[in-house]
Amino acid sequence: MTKPANDPLPPLQVNADRLWARHMDIARIGAIAGNGSCRLAMTAEDAEARALLASWCSDAGLDLHVDRAGNMFAIRPGSDPARSIVASGSHLDTQPHGGRFDGISGVLAALEAVETLNDAGLETTAPLAVVNWTNEEGVRYAPGLLGSAWYAGTLTDAALSDIRAADGMLFDDEARLRGWLGDSSQKIPLAAFLELHIEQGPVLEREEKQVGVVTSVQGLTWLDVRVSGTDAHAGTTPLDHRQDALLAVARMLAALNEAGLECGPAARVSVGRLKTATDGPSTIVGEAAFVIDIRHPDAEKLAGLTARCTAICETLAEQSGCTATVAQRISVSPTQFDARCIRALEAGAERRGYAYRKIASGALHDAANVAKVVPTAMVFVPCRDGISHNVNEYASPEDLAAGTNVLLDALLDLAR
Hints:
four-stranded antiparallel β-sheet; 35% helix; alpha/beta; 19 strands
């Protein structure tokens, strides 16, 4: 027999040992050297992790739904069937050399919050849901944040059907093969969404804060740059007669970094992927391509920095005797989270006596997509040395439990 979770909030504590054990159980799936994880979206490893999560949700008495994009919603009923669902979660997929906490912690924290309510015999007025969003990392299928983009309406059914992995496999075919392609394009209505995540940066650890209440996600633009010169022989072509695309790119990379620095400490300009058309040691490169990742929390400054990066590439290509074409691949505006959801998380941190601070997210998360259609906020927990997308990624059991306690209180607040 459950009882209502009314004010004042009960002094519940999540089961830190159970939460940690679940992290270690998931980490065995797709385990790689160095305590890392590799579970790319819709691979056999991802399917196995999904099945394990589904079994835990079933044991907790949750009703599992899978939508057109493979997103998992495990629902705990509330006392008022007219109320929309208050949800929490993140993603199970990882980077190729990822860690044991990025994304996974948010899914497991949501499940732990629900199980803590089960253990206490508490009923919420609104239903609750544990969510696993599909293909957040975007390693096998582009774009990243695929499942939440479909949910938010920025990715259509038709577009989803056309998406292929690098190996040519259609998303629909692979999701169906793995048993995780839902047959309904209907979106499950949510009243609110909260996402717990490791910070993926050093701020909370440096400032000795156990919790971060996330107020916003900075905007992002990706630019595809292709530089064209002329292939030539390294031994016979004088230096002043070359149209060296790789040399032009080298000049661009240094100038792009300077442009980011000049824009201020909130700016981020990065190049993490560079490919050349040839790789012979005695051939001058005639064509090279790279991607610029540009981020800023201010939309106007993001647009200005994007324009400047474009101009840098075009100008330096011309000065190097080459040409550059620049095309925008992704543009995501800065996201401000919902004030009511932020207050619920703050109240939880204050009530628990945790050292916390408000913080903006430097990384994109599914919450940024969901916030387009549902009141949303995030809670961060520290990660050691700010390391993420790395096998050395680590969050302590104590910090994970603290963040999950805050999440629990906020879910109770929103679902009363």
